[in-house]
Amino acid sequence: MLALPAFADNYIWMFHDGVEAAVVDPGDCAPVLDALDRLGLRLGAILVTHHHQDHVGGLLGLRARFDVPIYAPALESMPVVSTPLKGGDAVIAVGLRFEVIDVSGHTRGHIAYFHGERQRGQAPLLFCGDTLFSAGCGRLFEGTPQQMHHSLQLLAGLPGDTRVCCAHEYTLSNLKFARAVEPQSAALVAYTDWCQEQRAAGLPTLPARIDTESAVNPFMRCTEPAVIDAAGSTAVTAKIRWLYSRPFGNGKTTFNDASAIHPHSAPWARLHAEPVGVVGGLWLRHAHGRTAKRIFHPGDRRPADGTGRQRQH
Q1: Catalytic residue chosen out of the listed positions 25, 28, 102, 130
Q2: What is the pLDDT of residue 224?
Q3: N or C: which end of the chain has fewer CB atoms below 10 A?
Q4: What are the tens digits of pLDDT across the range 85-115?
């Protein structure tokens, strides 16, 4: 299995059997075509988790060269003809059977693909798009906190050694926030050290593992006493505000509410004792989001490049 880098921080996941390959969320066709040519593989299938451009932008280019099945969420529009899927469906790609799981929240129809069979000593495999990131989760563009909480609980129930193939390399920036919430967590310290070593060596921090996420990801720990206690902590709130005052974008511009945490992940704006409320507080809304109360909203101002564009993660 390969994590093909795309754009600034995307991964297009490719898995193959030495002859045939499948790819997940090809936002750009160029890395896929390069890998296929380099490894002498033929494309056999494409799996799509949701409709955002950085996940589907390469579909037209790949369809032009390969007549292969494209599997995609039934509730979302695609730029090409695809086979619509919903939770409970199953697909076969490169000889592997994937169960489809509904994981709405980031988008209305977001799905994930789970291969639970243990073949040749390999752990289960999850392609979760932008629903679950290592130490974080995706922004709520179209869904609700209730939907995201439900989706994360579904994923938390998968086997602990499940390989979690997220679509973005956001781990280190997510960990900054997680450590502000649980500064005494030995698991967070150890995982941060390992992730820093990976990135320093030019390697991905992914795939993650479900049991690791259960230990370090605040979005999956919203019933833990320490996280609930942090909800009322002024020290945590102060730490978050400090993180949001760091240089942003090009490193020369500082916004009072700009984020040293990756602005397209979902750090906490406010914590609540109820699990769904915690997820709601974790949600970093889109720049043009609604007017519900929150401490601050990093997307309210333009990015440092002045374009005003918002990415769909």
Answers
A1: 130
A2: 85
A3: N
A4: 999 999 999 999 999 999 999 999 999 999 9
Answer yes or no: are the C-beta atoms of 304 and 249 closer than 8 Å. yes
**Would residue 286 show up in a list of annotated catalytic residues for this protein?**
no
Based on the residue annotation, tell me whether 52 is a catalytic residue of this protein: yes
DSSP 218: G
pTM above 0.70, yes or no: yes
pLDDT tens, 253-291? Answer: 332 333 333 334 444 333 334 555 545 444 432 222 333
Q: How big is the chain by its Cα radius of gyration, in Å?
A: 19
Q: How far is CA 68 from CA 21, 30, 63, 83, 85, in A?
A: 11, 17, 7, 11, 16
Of the residues 25, 28, 54, 102, only one is catalytic, namely 54
Low-confidence ranges of the chain (pLDDT < 50): 244, 246-273, 278, 280-311
- Catalytic, out of 16, 50, 51, 150: 50
Residue 224 CB coordination number (10 Å): 16
pLDDT confidence of residue 89: 98
Q: Rounded distance, CA 282 to CA 262, Å?
A: 13
pLDDT of residue 276: 53
What element of type H or E holds 211?
helix 210-216
Query: What number of helices (H) and strands (E) belong to the chain?
Result: 10, 14
54 catalytic residue (yes or no) = yes
Catalytic residue among 16, 52, 149, 150: 52
Of 110, 149, 168, 272, the active-site residue reads 168
Residue 112 tokens, joined: 């994930």
Domain ranges of the chain: 2-220, 225-300
Whether the CB-CB separation of 46 and 40 falls below 8 Å is answered with no
Give CATH for domain 2-220. 3.60.15.10
Confidence (pLDDT) at 237: 57
